[in-house]
Each structure stands twice: as structure tokens, then as C-alpha cells.
User: Which sequence fits this backbone?
């Protein structure tokens, strides 16, 4: 491209581009096929000698070979929208009949963004989006034509359910610079979803805002109204005029097509930075103060104990660029239980956060890995606060009835912005814990509560591309087990067109009685075409890194190199889309031994009928296995092959299902075969029933049983789940959730690892004289009623029963299930009511 010269002149929405280059150079191969809503039109193309001159009018978009270059890209000129009086009378009821809507700015040019990159036609059904604002907030109304026979109207809980229904979304880049944003979604029928946006395309639903919306429909189509108050948005300070980004979109579920304005294609890496700038005049949101008192009661039916609490959440936003949140006497009683997972490995299971205080406004503390996938290093994991405490070495082993968690007396966090800096502080205090020993004379032990602090500092510069440099530090003060600290530095850079990016992170831990540990990674991202991308990564964790005081790292002593390739064919001949991924991963320990190599290929086929078929093949050459007996022993594993397949039908239908099956070779002998599926029935908009079942059989499962001694097991067992939802209204729901998993294992053969050798040597089969059998079963049953009375105001009634057992009763799965239900470990009934007061 060195021999290309470009002159671009713009007036409003029209752009004149003059391109001059040499005959036979890249410019001659450039394609002027428009891939944007405003199509580029060639007006002149002439060659004199070796000089090529092209003049184009419009918004040009060029493609060269495998690379795509966008001069101007998505339309980014600021758009002035209508400002109306603060006295405007608009009822947010889904009926677009007030006179204010006729004065509002109108958007009609929504384009298809999830099909072929080179063709983004306008939406086939008339769609008018009307927008205006005043000092209170942003008002948006959708007026949409659509045949009623194509409606897909399904209720769901707030932020819950799939997106396979008709819906509209308003996305806002509140920073005006692609740093952070918010989205607000309404589904046909009245269900809602909201959350936060992080660069460039992370949609997080763990945020709730006090906004207002309603939908209606008739025989012509459907309608949606939004009021998004400025007071719920983080926004930089501005003296008079300010600019924020806006996107409006609509999903037609029957066709699976997604339309938006501006037209940002799903294949593009940029999203938040490409929202259309809109200019707001003299908008300075008023200070927000919200008080959310709550009362709760938890009845432990198994332990015959009752706990009542009265507390309050406080949200205070004195300015647009700072918010403080606090909670007094917080009630973290379960309203949504964790999934049943029987974990028989040496690695801890990662459970997501579900507690309201920690999920809201948490985006600044959650470090994302935009291109490298999952990370072994999570610097801050809020589930550590209030979790069940390890009292090993602190109290006698005779202590009984250890609580499942620790109560918190209070917690607070504040986040703010100053220029190019964002900052955050989170702190929480646990209550003291009292435990009792067993015996004739029980004795009590007082365990002091712990203190937690998290500090976050982030520098962001959008001058040329995107540059983020941040620090996150955590502290756990524990007088019983000792203090623990960690520090993480992260760096993220992306070019202005987001076709190249780099992401790096370095963490260090300092835990009492442990050596200082280090770990980190570097990811490099390349996009060589709109539908082709590459990621090269290196990640290393030394044997001393321990972030588990207030973070999460399941294992240590690993250096991993990886390469990933992704290709999206969005306009194939026989399918809607085909997605292909290729990955190569190599892992090594501190001795330089290879502890894993994976070569994987996967393809997803999206059919025209909205069915999806996928297949994945994974080859793992022989390696040194250090995970079966983590930090105890290592042995040489054979080359293994795994094949997985899945089939899913159109989930907009009243009845849809999925099937999956696969086979994996064992690390020594034998293998693992599994099959399963799910069935969902939703005959009407306010009822859904889902049943999922799977079963696995394996005769190659190796587990350590004693130092340097292993057993290979033949195991089997079902995993089943059933949930049903019924909605009285879009804001009142009853849900029944049942999960059950059972594993029964019988020893097949014994092995030993001799000194100085990495090979497992068989010591004979398991039998009556050398048995090695075990079983494990877990169950969760929950009945939950939720009523959303108003934004951030709810009533919950929750019954939860959980049980675990290591015995298969009468060698029968049915008998075991009956025993778990009868002799549950926990039986709780919780009631919680909270109501929001404030602006």
C-alpha cells in the first residue's frame, strides 16, 4: 500500500474520495463493492501510463486480497438528535401515541449484520426508531411492522433465557470513547435484559439499572418504549456539549437475522468504538441517591434454625463520573443455587458469582482476556469473600457443624473516572465465626472475621488505537491463617482498526509462609480478513503462584504455548454459516517436560432451517501426565484421540431438542463414551419445560489411590436436570429446578509407579481380594418465586434442598435418588423483599 495516495473530503454524510496509485499495484485490485449501508459508487477510473486514478462518491469500503481496508469505516460523524422540554409528557407504556414522538429524531436505516459481509441489505419490515432526550434521560421508541404469524414471543426472567426470540436493543457508549457502555433489551411480550459493555464486544448481564420499558403489539406489528435515565450511567464530566455512542438493533427470530444502526457487522472486531456518536447539549445528570432496604428470613429446616436480617443497599452517585455502593448487614442467602458438580479431581471448581452486591458495577474489577480464551489466572474472584473457611490447624478435628459460609457485617465499593484514569476500591468485613467441638463437654471456638480490600487503577488512551494499562491489588487480612496479598499489572493495546491487538498480564502473590509466586501471559491477535483471525499466546505460572486468597488459579507449574485460527464462512452455498476453528497447544513444566499437547479442529454448521450441527476432533500425542496425581506423581500417558458431535434444532419452535455424543481414549487403556441430549417444550409464551439427560461409560479412568499407586476404573452413571418455568406476567415467575448426578466406579486394574520411572506398571487386576470401588451422588432441588415489583425492587420466595452421598443404595439409582431426597444435607426456605427508594 506504499504506492497508494488517498484524498478524502466529507460534507455531512457524503464523502468524496480520490485514490491515486500505480498501474498493477494494490489499488488496481481493490474492490469497490460496498459493504456498508451507504454504498460507494465509482464515478471515474482512468489510467495514464502507469498511473491509475479513481474517484468515488459515498462512504467507500475496499477489500484487497485477504485483507480488508476501510477508509472512513462505519459512519462516525456526530449526529445531533432532538432535545425536548423537561416537561414532556410521555408514559412509558409501549403505546407510541404521545405528540413528543412525532417531534423526535427518526432512524430507519437498520441493516443486516449477521450474514454475508459483502451484503448488508435493509430490514425487510418497516422499522422506525424515534429518539429524543432531555435532562432526565434518553427516550427511545421502536415502531415495527411484522406479520403476527412470524412472532416469537417467549417470556423469561430478567437477564435470563436465550435470545432466540424477537427483541430490540439500545446500546450506549457512555464514555464517548469506546471505554465502557451499557445495553438495554426488551423482548416481544415484555421480558427485559440489561448489562454492561466492555471493549470491544463483551456483553455482561451482571448489572441492573433503574430504567423503564414496556412493549405492546397488534395485528400490524409490535412496539417498544424505553426511558434510560442519565443518572444510572457512568459518564465523563462535560461542561456543555458531550458526545456518547448509540446503537439500536432488532432481531427477527424466525429468520435468525439481526439488524442494527449503525451497521456494525458481527465479524468486525470493533463494536463499542464504532457506535454512532450523538451530541447532547447541556446534559449534566443530577446526583443519584438510591436506598434499597430489605428484610429477609432464612429457615434451616434440617438444622432447625432461623435467621432474620434487616439491611440496606445504598447507591450514591454525586457526579456522573463517580459512584459509591454500600451494603449494611448484607443478606447473601441463596436465591439461586450452584449447579451440581461432582468434582473428583485435584483442581477446584470455578463457580460464578451470583450475589447482587458483587455482580453489580463489577466490570472495572473483572479483567477480561479478549482474545486468548480462558485463563488459569483470575486476580479477583469475589466468591472468596464469605466462602466456607478452612480451619485446618486452627481448631481441633472434633469441631462439628462447620458453617457453609461466613456472614458479612458490611461491604462497600466505589468506582470513578478522572480524565484518562478510572479507579475503584472494594472492601468487605466478615463477622466473627463461632464453632463447637463434639463430645461430652462441647467447647466453643471464636474465629475472628477476615477483612478484604481490592484496589483497581486503569489508564486508558484512545489517541491512536486503544491503550489500557492497569493495576489490580488484593489484600486478605486473616489473623487465623495469616495475611495474603496479590498484585496484577495488565496491558492491552489494539490498533485503530482493531486488526491487531496485544494483551498482557503479570501477577504476583505474597502469602504468609509461602514463597513469592509469579504468573502471566501474552496474547497477540491478528485479523487478516473480515472473517479470518489468528491468536498466538504464551502463558506461564511458576510453582509458587497462589492467588486463591482473593483470586483463582487452579493449578501452578505450567508454561503453555498456543495458536488459534478461526474462519467464518458467512455466505456458504448450502448453509447459513460455517465456523471453523483450529488450535494447537503445548504445555511444559518447570523441568522442561512436555505435560500436554493438543491439536484440535472443530466446525459448526448453521443450517438454513436454524438447526446447528457441530463436530470436534482432538488429538493429544503422548505426554507426561501431571494432573491425575497433581503435585504428587507424574506418569507417561499414551497418545489419545477424542471425537465429539452435537446436533441442535431450531430453538424458536414450540418443541426443540439437542443431541450430543463423543468418545475419548483413556490415558493408559480403555476409553470414555458418552451420549445425551435435551428436550425443551414451550407451547405457550409463559410456560417452558426442559429436560436434559446424559450418561457416560468409561473403562479407562485412572485415579491415584496411594503414593505412587493408581487404579483404573470402570465407571458409569447418569446426569439429569429438569426445570420448568411459568410466568403469571413477564415480571412474575415460578421456577422449579432439579439437578442430579451419580457416579459409580469399580476398580479394573492396579498400577504402580516405580522410582526413577515415568511408566505405570500393572500389578494385576482388581478383584474380590483387592477391591477398589467407590460411588458419589449429588442432588439439588429448588422452587423459586420471583416478583419484580419495580426496577431493582423484588420479592423472592425460595425453597432449596441439596444432598450428597457416597453410597449407591441397593445398587439402584432410583433408590439412591429417593434416599437423597429423604435425607438431604440442607433444606432451606428463604424469603427476601427489597424495594428501591430514590431517583
Assistant:
Amino acid at each position: 500500500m506504499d504506492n497508494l495516495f488517498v484524498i478524502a473530503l466529507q460534507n455531512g454524510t457524503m464523502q468524496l474520495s480520490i485514490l491515486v496509485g500505480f498501474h498493477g499495484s494494490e489499488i488496481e485490485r481493490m474492490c469497490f463493492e460496498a459493504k456498508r449501508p451507504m454504498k460507494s459508487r465509482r464515478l471515474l477510473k482512468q489510467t495514464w501510463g502507469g498511473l491509475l486514478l479513481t474517484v468515488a462518491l459515498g462512504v467507500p469500503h475496499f477489500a484487497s486480497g485477504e485483507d480488508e481496508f476501510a477508509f472512513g469505516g462505519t459512519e462516525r460523524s456526530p449526529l445531533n438528535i432532538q432535545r425536548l422540554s423537561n416537561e414532556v409528557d410521555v408514559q412509558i407504556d409501549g403505546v407510541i401515541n404521545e405528540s413528543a414522538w412525532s417531534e423526535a429524531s427518526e432512524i430507519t436505516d437498520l441493516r443486516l449484520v449477521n450474514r454475508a459481509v459483502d451484503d448488508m441489505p435493509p430490514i425487510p419490515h418497516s422499522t422506525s426508531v424515534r429518539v429524543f432526550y432531555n435532562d432526565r434521560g434518553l427516550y427511545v421508541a421502536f415502531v415495527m411492522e411484522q406479520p403476527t404469524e412470524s412472532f416469537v414471543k417467549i417470556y423469561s426472567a430478567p437477564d435470563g433465557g436465550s435470545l432466540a426470540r424477537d427483541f430490540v436493543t439500545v446500546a450506549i457508549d457512555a464514555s464517548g470513547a469506546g471505554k465502557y457502555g451499557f445495553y438495554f433489551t426488551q423482548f416481544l411480550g415484555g421480558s427485559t435484559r440489561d448489562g454492561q459493555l466492555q471493549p470491544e464486544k463483551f456483553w455482561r448481564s451482571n448489572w441492573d439499572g433503574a430504567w423503564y420499558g414496556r412493549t405492546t403489539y397488534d395485528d400490524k406489528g409490535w412496539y417498544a418504549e424505553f426511558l434510560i435515565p442519565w443518572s444510572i450511567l457512568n459518564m465523563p464530566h462535560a461542561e456543555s456539549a458531550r458526545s456518547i455512542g448509540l446503537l439500536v438493533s432488532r432481531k427477527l427470530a424466525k429468520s435468525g437475522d439481526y439488524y442494527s444502526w449503525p451497521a456494525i457487522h458481527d465479524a468486525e472486531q470493533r463494536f463499542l468504538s464504532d457506535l454512532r456518536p450523538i451530541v447532547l447539549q447541556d446534559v449534566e445528570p443530577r446526583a443519584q441517591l438510591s436506598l434499597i432496604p430489605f428484610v429477609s428470613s432464612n429457615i434451616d429446616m434440617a438444622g432447625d434454625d432461623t435467621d432474620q436480617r434487616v439491611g440496606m443497599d445504598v447507591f450514591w452517585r454525586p457526579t456522573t463520573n463517580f459512584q459509591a455502593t454500600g451494603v449494611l448487614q448484607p443478606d447473601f442467602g441463596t436465591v439461586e443455587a450452584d449447579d451440581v458438580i461432582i468434582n473428583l479431581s485435584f483442581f477446584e471448581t470455578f463457580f460464578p458469582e451470583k450475589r447482587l452486591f458483587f455482580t453489580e458495577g463489577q466490570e472495572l474489577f473483572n479483567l477480561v482476556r479478549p482474545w486468548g480464551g480462558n485463563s488459569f489466572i483470575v486476580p479477583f474472584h469475589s466468591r472468596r469473600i464469605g466462602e466456607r473457611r478452612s480451619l485446618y490447624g486452627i481448631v481441633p478435628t472434633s469441631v462439628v457443624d462447620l458453617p457453609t459460609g461466613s456472614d458479612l457485617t458490611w461491604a462497600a465499593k466505589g468506582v470513578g473516572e478522572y480524565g484518562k484514569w478510572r479507579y475503584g476500591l472494594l472492601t468487605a468485613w466478615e463477622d466473627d465465626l463461632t464453632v463447637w467441638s463434639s463430645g461430652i463437654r462441647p467447647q466453643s471456638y471464636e474465629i475472628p472475621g477476615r477483612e478484604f480490600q481490592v484496589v483497581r487503577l486503569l489508564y486508558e488512551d484512545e489517541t491512536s488505537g486503544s491503550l489500557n494499562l492497569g493495576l489490580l491489588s488484593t489484600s486478605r487480612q486473616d489473623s487465623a491463617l495469616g495475611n495474603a496479598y496479590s498484585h496484577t499489572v495488565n496491558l492491552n493495546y489494539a490498533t485503530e482498526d482493531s486488526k491487531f491487538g496485544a494483551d498482557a498480564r503479570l501477577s504476583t502473590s505474597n502469602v504468609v509462609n509461602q514463597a513469592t509466586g509469579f504468573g502471566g501471559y501474552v496474547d497477540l491477535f491478528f485479523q487478516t480478513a473480515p472473517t479470518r483471525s489468528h491468536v498466538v499466546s504464551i502463558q506461564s505460572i511458576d510453582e509458587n503462584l497462589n492467588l486463591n486468597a482473593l483470586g483463582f488459579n487452579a493449578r501452578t507449574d505450567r508454561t503453555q504455548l498456543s495458536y488459534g485460527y478461526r474462519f467464518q464462512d458467512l455466505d456458504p452455498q448450502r448453509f447459513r454459516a460455517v465456523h471453523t476453528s483450529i488450535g494447537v497447544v503445548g504445555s511444559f513444566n518447570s523441568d522442561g517436560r512436555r505435560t500436554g499437547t493438543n491439536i484440535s479442529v472443530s466446525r459448526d454448521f448453521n443450517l438454513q432451517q436454524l438447526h446447528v450441527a457441530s463436530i470436534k476432533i482432538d488429538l493429544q500425542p503422548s505426554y507426561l501426565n501431571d494432573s491425575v496425581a497433581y503435585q504428587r506423581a507424574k506418569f507417561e500417558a499414551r497418545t489419545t484421540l477424542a471425537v465429539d458431535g452435537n446436533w441442535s434444532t431450531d430453538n424458536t419452535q414450540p418443541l426443540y431438542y439437542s443431541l450430543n455424543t463423543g468418545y475419548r481414549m483413556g490415558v493408559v487403556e480403555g476409553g470414555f463414551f458418552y451420549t445425551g441430549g435435551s428436550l425443551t417444550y414451550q407451547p405457550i409464551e409463559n410456560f417452558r419445560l426442559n429436560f436434559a439427560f446424559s450418561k457416560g461409560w468409561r473403562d479407562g479412568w485412572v485415579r491415584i489411590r496411594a503414593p505412587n499407586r493408581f487404579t483404573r476404573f470402570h465407571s458409569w452413571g447418569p446426569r439429569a436436570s429438569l426445570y420448568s418455568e411459568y410466568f403469571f406476567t413477564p415480571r412474575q415467575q415460578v421456577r422449579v429446578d432439579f439437578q442430579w448426578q451419580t457416579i459409580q466406579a469399580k476398580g479394573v486394574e492396579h498400577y504402580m509407579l516405580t522410582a526413577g520411572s515415568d511408566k505405570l506398571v500393572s500389578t494385576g487386576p482388581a478383584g474380590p481380594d483387592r477391591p477398589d470401588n467407590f460411588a458419589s451422588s449429588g442432588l439439588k432441588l429448588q422452587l423459586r418465586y420471583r416478583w419484580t415489583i419495580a426496577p431493582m425492587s423484588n420479592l423472592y420466595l425460595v425453597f432449596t434442598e441439596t444432598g450428597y452421598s457416597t453410597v449407591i443404595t441397593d445398587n439402584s439409582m432410583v433408590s439412591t435418588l429417593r434416599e437423597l431426597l429423604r435425607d438431604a444435607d440442607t433444606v432451606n426456605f428463604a424469603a427476601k423483599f427489597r424495594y428501591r427508594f430514590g431517583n
User: Anything to note?
Assistant: Residues 480 and 813 are 43 Å apart (CA to CA).
